[in-house]
Amino acid sequence: MVAESILNAWVDANILLVVLVAAWIPMRHALARGRLGQAMMGQARAMEWIFIAVIVAPFLARLVFPPVGPQLNLADLLVAQYLNGNLEMSATRFETLLGLRADLTDAFLLQRDGWANAVLALLLLGFTLSAARLCFAALHLRRVLRHAHPWRRFGRLELLISDEVAVPFSTCGLRRRYVVLPVSALGHGRDLHFTLAHEFQHLRQYDLLHEFAVEALRPFFFWNPAFHLCSRQLRELREMACDQAVALRRPIELGGYCRSLIRACGRARPEGSVFVPVGPAVGFVDSTHGTAMNSQLGRRIVALTGCTPSLESQQAWKAIGLLFCVLLALGAVVMQSPTGWSHDRIMLSTIVNLERLDERNASQPSISGMFATIDPVPSTQ
Predict the structure, then answer these.
(1) CA 348 to chain centre
(2) Pair 20, 230: CB distance under 8 Å
(3) pLDDT digits (tens, 9 = 90+) for 49-90
(4) Are 261 and 301 in contact (CB under 8 A)?
């Protein structure tokens, strides 16, 4: 029973991720053309709340609202729509489709079919490879931190200089937080100033905590493109929110900050570069290739040079994020499978039995037809 609940919650989380992508991305693109589109800090906070709600809501719903007794659920809503004549199909087929997920879940848990064995093997293989990749990135990151040279220390925060990296980034351990700078950053005083301001802002926003949580969840959702799309959007919004916070704190230095981003991106892939942070870390720039306006760098500069967002715009995005969280939590409760028999489900079962009875009667020759085929006995008189 526990394994079935965990599996169903995991499936619901994957479904909600797809729903989130289908709803969030078009809405964000539609609002990006107005004044709300410039409120990057509000968008980042809203996306973080929504992402947490998508993952946590299906598991929390089964703890707070266990599927026991009569309660609102999607299956009963579909049955009511069918009985009202809004769905055109046979009752037998509708009941089969309605119970398809429960049948597949049972078959997967019992491992009684070949496809269930193959799916389990693929999931375990993907989980193992994704977890191994995460462990390798963490070990690589730890090696870079151990080989880096200490420069400054402020309480639990350490500034390190490394000749193995080309991109400044920040990360943390169990007791300390680190900002790692490439050797080339020391030769550019203004760029170093902006880099430190950017990385310190990441620490203020607790972006490292969110990045570690996303990376820890990646092996469990490695197969879902919606998870990777959401994590990429969240990472990009965090960078834009960080840029915007620095620009709002020092508006007269906006031009210098944009030029620093461009120069840092140019130095991000020099020959001989060994390490670019891809695991639990947040970097100053993204070194992926792309055209000037389609790359992350281009979008960050466009966001920085746009209109100054108002406080109302930032709060509006937070309100949108809370609304999404409430809707996702409600969806997680509604998606739970019913455990009892409602009046509508009893009526659907009755209709299914009548259909099967009609099919059985139609497959047998009628009694009158049987007597009609018997030749009359000739009279002996």
Answers:
(1) 36
(2) yes
(3) 999 999 999 998 888 777 665 567 778 788 888 888 888 888
(4) yes
Cβ-based neighbours of 278, under 8 Å, separated by 6 or more: 137
**Residues 9-50: pLDDT tens digits?**
999 999 999 999 999 888 888 887 777 888 889 999 999 999
Strands 169-172 and 282-283: antiparallel
Contacts of 300 (CB under 8 A, 6+ apart): 239, 240, 243, 261
Q: Which DSSP helix (H) or strand (E) runs through 314?
A: helix 311-334
Q: In this structure, are strands 282-283 and 157-162 parallel, antiparallel, or unpaired? A: unpaired
CA–CA distance, 144 with 161 (Å, rounded to integer):
10
Task: Find the distance separating the first CA and the last CA of the chain, reported in whole Å.
Answer: 78
Q: What is the 3 state secondary structure string of 32-85?
A: CCCHHHHCHHHHHHHHHHHHHHHHHHHHHHHHHCCCCCCCCCHHHHHHHHHHCC
pLDDT tens column, 334-360: 888 776 677 777 888 888 888 888 888
